[in-house]
């Protein structure tokens, strides 16, 4: 059974507007891997654990129909609210019961989600619903770096804050920290790619808004509601940046990790 987080309406709304989206080159890598041996029509793809649709929308140009599935109705509400693409459909479903017929999907994706799944059940459903030569793509992004000359202390300050709230994340967060090093796809033909980076230019408010979407931060604040650790982080970062300008641009870089596996047997 999958674990259920990020389901509250407020958290879902915050997640939808503050989380990074993946760059087109990440999807290009997935589609290129699929195209190497899958030579039929790109008709159906499914994004499992789609959340508010950050990854689902990237599939739209390649497939006739894309389905986004999540256990959280609040996350799907946010996905539907911003969806403008006619070939995407969002539905409630869990990772261990993919609502498609046998051998019906070209591609199954799970973005920043597989570490919450019961992987044995998920892989069984993936194998059942993938077409021959279809592909499973499991991917995510890890803790970001603030890129810039002499920003080592800025990054150290940000990392120290993360370690402060780290115990309040669910235990499976370790898989994100390890870039899915211990998640093994069930196929013999598989590759791993860590070359894609997500880049953003954020000011301090935008960075702190991202922090407020962390489940670890939210749980910390639930336990210590009178502690203003976000304001403390703001001041600490400004001090390390040697500036009082809160609109100073921070060049953010999120490392990604992509696991790709191909169904070559029945």
UniProtKB/TrEMBL annotation:
InterPro entries: Diverse_substrate_MTase, Methyltransf_11, SAM-dependent_MTases_sf. CDD domains: AdoMet_MTases. GO terms for molecular function: S-adenosylmethionine-dependent methyltransferase activity. Keywords: Methyltransferase, Transferase. One of its GO terms (biological process) is methylation. The keyword Methyltransferase applies. It comes from the Eukaryota. Residues 47-137 form the Methyltransferase type domain. Pfam families: Methyltransf_11. The keyword Methyltransferase applies. Belongs to the methyltransferase superfamily. This is Methyltransferase type 11 domain-containing protein. It comes from Adineta steineri. The lineage of its organism: Eukaryota, Metazoa, Spiralia, Gnathifera, Rotifera.
């Amino acid at each position: 059974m999958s674990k259920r987080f990020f389901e509250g309406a407020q958290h879902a709304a915050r997640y939808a507007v503050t989380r990074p989206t993946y760059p087109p080159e990440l999807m290009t890598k997935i589609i290129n891997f699929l195209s190497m041996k899958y030579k039929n029509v790109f008709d159906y793809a499914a994004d499992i654990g789609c959340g508010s649709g950050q990854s689902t929308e990237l599939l739209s140009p390649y497939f006739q129909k894309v389905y986004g599935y999540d256990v959280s109705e609040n996350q799907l509400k946010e996905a539907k609210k911003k969806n403008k693409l006619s070939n995407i459909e969002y539905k409630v479903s869990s990772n261990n019961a993919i609502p498609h017929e046998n051998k019906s999907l070209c591609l199954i994706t799970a973005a920043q989600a597989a570490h919450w799944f019961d992987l044995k059940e998920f892989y069984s459903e993936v194998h059942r619903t993938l077409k021959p030569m279809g592909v499973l793509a499991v991917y995510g992004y890890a803790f970001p770096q603030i890129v810039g000359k002499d920003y080592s202390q800025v990054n150290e300050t940000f990392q120290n804050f993360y370690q402060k709230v780290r115990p309040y994340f669910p235990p499976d967060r370790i898989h994100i920290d390890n870039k899915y090093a211990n998640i093994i796809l069930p196929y013999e033909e598989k590759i791993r790619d860590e070359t894609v980076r997500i880049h953003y230019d954020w000011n301090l408010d935008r960075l702190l808004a991202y922090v407020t979407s962390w489940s670890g931060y939210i749980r910390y604040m639930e336990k210590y509601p009178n502690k203003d650790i976000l304001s403390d982080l703001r001041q600490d970062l400004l001090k390390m940046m040697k500036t009082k300008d809160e609109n100073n641009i921070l060049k953010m870089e999120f490392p990604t990790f992509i696991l790709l596996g191909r169904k070559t047997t029945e």
